[in-house]
Predict the structure.
Amino acid sequence: MLWVAQVLGISLVLTLSPLMWGITQTTKARLQGRRGPSVWLMYWVMKKNWHKETTVPEFSSIIFRLAPSMTLAPLLVVLITIPIAGRVPALWPHNMLTVFFLLALERFWTGLAGLDSAGTFGGMGASRATTLGTGIEPALFAALGIFWEVSRHAAIEPLAPALRTNPASLFPWALASVSLALVLLAEWGRLPVDNPDTHLELTMIHEATLLEYDGRFLALSQWAMTLKITVLATLGWVILGPNLSSLWSNLALRLAEVTVTTVALGLIESRFTKLRFFQIPAYLAAAAGIGILAFYLLAGGLTV
Amino acid sequence: MPKSWIAANLEYKKAGYELLSYLATREGRLHATWLNPVDREQKDVSTQVVDNHFPSLTRQLPEVAWDEREIHDLFGYRPEGHPDLRPLIRTPRWPHDFYPLRTRSNIPPQWLDVEPDNPAKTVTGDGITIMKVGPTHAGIIESGHFVFSLIGENVLYLDAHLFQNHRGVELLLEDRTIEDVRRIVSRICAGDSVSHQTNWALAVETLARWTAEPPLALRRIILLECERVLSHLNDLAQIPAGVGFQRAHQLALAIKEYWQQGLKRLFGHRFLFDTVRPGEAAATTPDDLGALVRELRRRWVPWRRLVEAHHGFNDRMAGVGIVKPQDVTRFGAQGVVARAAGKALDARSILPLYDDMAVQFIQESAGDVKARFYVRVAELEESLRLLEESARRLRRWGSNDSSPFIEDPSDLSGRTVTFTESPHGLNVHDITLARGRVTRYHIRAGTYRNWPLLAHTVPGNAVADFPLINKSFELCYSCVDR
């Protein structure tokens, strides 16, 4: 039964992530006074790109062609390891440190792809994305550090049981949630850090690394982009969210939680403008600081 | 003789005159027309091109750098001593003896089979990246090629190559009759159409020694202010997009769309094409105008509150793209750009048309994106007030029409320089007619002075702020690429 629940959870994330993207876009459109395109638009766009001719810049190498798969693959592995229904079958590999390094791998290949596209915008996007990465990683590490503290090993497990046994950990839990939310906005390339909807090449971060892609490569990159949001949102809710007793109600709960996240993402993006690039380190430092604070509070709270 | 050409022009510049037009003619005459903003007198300085050469003013008067390059490209007159005589409009594909405004040939030349790009000015050295943007952009905008020299995220130098879609409007207008000119002038630029049309109408009326009576003047004011509201709404909508403030961007575009539908209903055209002609202007009723403005205010007020209260948005605009007061003078900056940097120049204060209207002129001193944004906000509200005042006067005057315009336009001759304050600044037409036909038509829109200033302002800012700075200038390409 555990196996069925896990496979079902994974398939749901894989198939619904473009829809989640659409929900965010629709939320934003409504707040802008527009009807906006269909929530299913991303499926159509990916299908269209998949059937288009795929071209490759003249001066690029094999790296350019590998990059779309190499950014998608780490996200798929992360997805598989998440105990989506709250528990995983015995001997299922699920490790926080693996997640951390897989995300670093994904970021690394995004940067390489931008550089290897041999265009100025790609190089600029890669440089910005990598600069951001140096701020995102410590913040993410601090936010995830909580779970070593709770479980005393690096497994991905819900934090909820620890909260039940120790009410003092409620405050650190809240801090950790804030920290994770801040760092995920940056990791997803959303406002106030990056604007996924802009056509202004000079301001782009993540999009700039994809400018030279088309056809199947672009379709893969778009799927990766939508998956990144859904996968990491699921991971965050598994760790920090409530945990029910039944596997199936947990799955339904995840679905609701991720949908709420995508709507919230639309609300947040409508509220904020993009930060100046040189202010982003301060933003990420705040995220890391909150995470570290949560870590120490929790460490103190649990050992008392 | 050459010395006095430079000295005379400098004298007017130092006396605070505004350069209206820098005109070259096929006969080898150069005219610089200066306007005294106080007593409204125009002064003409002229010289003769000798052996296709003339003394350049650019070293003393940097604002004419582009005018002289343009004369060099289109007439082949060489400004001696010009510091940067790279082609402005010419491309390497033009044959060497092809000077469209001098030769006036109707047969298109044999284009040379070479690469079309002009050489760019860049910075060289370690760690410097050259970034080329355009001429085709991702958004639906006009064509401009920008070559940035960057060090990291910072701009060291910007070389702007406009004139990618040069249409040859000035040549197109030559030999046209008065009726033909109107339609072309109306379409020089969709952003400043009424201003261009009014310049043409004023020119014909001036040469015919005919003055518009108050009801006609009022109709023109209404059209000019309607255009200003439209243009400012568009610019105010674009600036938030530069920092990812999509909500303000889209909501303002919706207000602009409402306004354009209203213009279509009242005057028959979304961009107010063909609304002003010599002796005439499109009319509306006070009730329609009043209702249009009232509804606009209802939509505008919440939007203004949204942007004024938004900390992140105001923070992003502050201190970015600062135009210094000395550069305003040096480059002869116009319109919102000049007024946001402390220069009190609004042609409405010089134009007899507006004498009955107590226009309140807006000025800021910071010179940054934020100042330009809020100058537009205040000017838009002032234009709405003027429109409401106009509606009141329309109601008071009823539909009494002024005396009809002329006679036979076919014997109009002479040269006149007319101007209006377009949404993008002082817009000037230098027109010469002979027996009712155009012999020379020179257009110098407000943006013509502001483009070189933009290129000068950007260095020192982050390259990611360029779209924001660019949108706060919101310069028109087609007024320049005419």
Observations:
- The interface with chain B takes residues 28, 31-34, 120-121, 123-124, 191-192, 195, 197-203, 269-270, 272-278 of chain A (CB under 8 Å).
- The two ends of chain A are 38 Å apart (CA to CA).
- The CA atoms of residues 118 and 287 of chain A lie 33 Å apart.
- Residues 120-151 of chain A form the longest helix (32 residues).
